[in-house]
Amino acid sequence: MSLRNTNKLFESAAYLPASLQLEFQAQQLWDHLSERSQACIRIAMHKTQPGPPTFREMWGHVWAGDSAITTDFAALSMDEKAEVLGFFTFQIHELTHHFDFLTTPYGANFQGKLFREYLAFQRFAPLFLREVVPHGNRYRERFVDYDPSARDPRPPDASDASHTSLQPDASGAPDAFHPSDAFLAAWKEVHDIVATLEALGDGSMLPHKQNMVAGWGGNNSTIQLFRQPVHPITVRGFFNTVTTADHPDWYLRPSTIFETRAVVHCLMWILKLFGGDERAREPLSIYLDSFYGPTMVGPDYTFVLDVIATGWGSTFSDFVRTAPMPSLRQFLMLTDASCWYALQAPPPMPDASAVRSSPIVRLMHALRFFNDAIADRRAYPTSVAVLMAMDSAQQAAAFELTGIDSILAYSAGFVQYLQQHKLQQVRDPILQKHFDRVLGVQHRRLAERVPHGYISYSGMPEDGHPVRGLRNENEVDDLAFDSYVADQRVRNWFSFRYNFLYRFPDAATIAASLKDFFGDAAPRVSPADPA
User: Fold this and answer.
1) How far apart are the first and last CA of the chain?
2) Burial class (CB in 10 A: 0-12, 13-18, 19+), 274
3) Among 160, 166, 176, 163, which residue's Cα sits nearest to residue 137?
4) Which residues contact 18 (CB under 8 A, 6 or more apart)?
5) 197-256 residue pLDDT tens
């Protein structure tokens, strides 16, 4: 199998934070790896028995101390080496996402919004079915863009099946729809959450241009991150972030933070495999060139890495090729710490504005702090000491930042409140069980972090592998991929939700799905998932 096709399989991997599922065809990947790559992988795992690899087989060996592994790896072609490195890191990449959505304050904010959005749809859907669907209208807009008070002066065009209005217009009169006050109130509740999630990056696409304005509260001054100039913009009226001249149709989103950490953790693991010294140089470069080249991925994956590299007058790929290994290890730890700091952005707190809940604002504070620390040659004994210094820095007050202790305590209390006081409002028992699982895991993981602040062995793993940072069976039960499989009905809901909010499903599909999920309050039992 060519590396190009292997790369397509890796690109098809998708971690779905809403349902906590990883979608990836692992067996298909294995079946199509080259024979030489498969043989090297078996040697690296010390695999002698048939069956799926164990955790110890996959990640229990340091290759640098085993001449059989290093010799066999050295004999591979560049593409074959890339296949082997990709095989041993793709789960680390997705596990990093999984842990970040379940153990951080930003994850609590995101999952809390998905839960509150479902409750809002539970109220809105029956009104939508009663006041909109019976008019026999067709649908032109994504729901995220729907405004029931807007008027489209053009009559529906029957020849255009993909481009019609959400407004019912059986008579052809554009003002035929007069929504009730109850409808408008329910629509606003659900739409406010939907628009917020879209601004944060949910839906994997950018909002329309009219939902982005230059500057932060009228301040359009360019911001310098290391040596990279960035331009402030505000999305959907609340989300302060930045864009660049090189990528005018992109802005810095939380996905950038998640992807940066995932890439960094994979690189840290490759460093460990090859002994953390010069032997890791070629594998690191092969990995980056094969999976994260400039024409292969968008800026979400490498923006932060390249920004920090400007502090050394370099691009990240060049830095990997030329920097002393101690500097490279420091670089990766610095980047990981910056992104970990960013993900401690809490759900909205009553004593602060939305600025405090922005992971992007926290990331920029972290990057500028590191830039100044490097310029001033300030040294800190640990990365945690650096993060604590960020909290107490004078600039933190301008961003309404507060200490990590209060953030963790508030975030743990936030998800506990949703679980104890709002969960019973979910009428569908299967969805209720799912949200109970998500909120319960988050409460336990955040509450356990409260006494330790920024310290997290799985959040900032020394060798890049988050699972190796787990310290007890309770953490494993909460965070292992195989400890929870969402019911098919849960997956169906989030699949429909995505299409309804961000795509153009037909009216019949929308009506049938909304009736299925919200048309009545009768309990449903989902058929067992196929084995």
Assistant:
1) 29
2) buried
3) 166
4) 114, 494, 497
5) 999 999 888 898 889 999 988 889 999 999 899 999 999 999 999 999 888 789 999 999
Sign of the dihedral through C-alpha 392, 456, 273, 64? positive
Say if residue 157's pLDDT is above 80. no
Count, in order, helices (H) and strands (E) of the chain.
Answer: 21, 6
Helix (H) or strand (E) holding 282: helix 281-291
**Is the predicted pLDDT of residue 521 greater than 70, yes or no?**
no
Residue-wise pLDDT for 271-315, tens only, equals 999 999 999 999 999 999 999 988 888 899 999 999 999 988 899
Beta carbons of 217 and 199 less than 8 angstroms apart:
no
* pLDDT of the residue at 401: 92
Cα 183 from Cα 512, distance rounded (Å): 19
Rounded distance, CA 56 to CA 51, Å?
A: 14
Checking if the pLDDT of 165 tops 50, the result is no
| Residue of 132, 107, 123 whose CA lies nearest to 407 | 107
What's the pTM value of the predicted model, to 2 decimals?
A: 0.91
Tokens representing 463? 């060798």
Structural tokens at position 141:
């807009």
Rounded CA-CA distance 155/450 in Å is 58
Strand partners, 240: 234
Residue that is written with structure tokens 């795992």 in the block:
45
Q: How far apart are CA 368 and CA 489, in angstroms?
A: 45
DSSP-derived 3-state class of residue 230: strand
Question: C-alpha distances in angstroms, 155 versus 160, 179, 503, 505, 513?
Answer: 11, 19, 22, 20, 27
| CA–CA gap between residue 523 and residue 520 (Å, rounded) | 9
Give the torsion sign (CA, 61, 67, 72, 74).
positive
Q: Do the beta carbons of residue 408 and residue 445 sit within 8 Å? A: no
Percent of the chain with pLDDT over 90: 69
Q: How many CA atoms lie within 13 A of 340 on its CB side?
A: 29
HSE, side-chain direction, 13 A CA sphere, residue 140: 19
Interatomic CA distance for residues 258 and 342, integer angstroms: 10
Q: Coil, strand or helix: which one is 384?
A: helix
For 232, which DSSP code? E
Write the pLDDT tens digit of every residue in 450-494. Answer: 999 999 999 999 999 999 999 999 999 999 988 999 999 999 999
Picking from 123, 111, 37, the residue whose alpha carbon sits closest to that of residue 80 is: 37
CA distances from 372 to 18, 278, 390, 393 (A): 38, 29, 11, 11
The 3-state secondary structure of 251-272, one letter per residue: CCCHHHHHHHHHHHHHHHHHHH
Distance in angstroms (rounded) separating the CA atoms of residues 271 and 491: 36
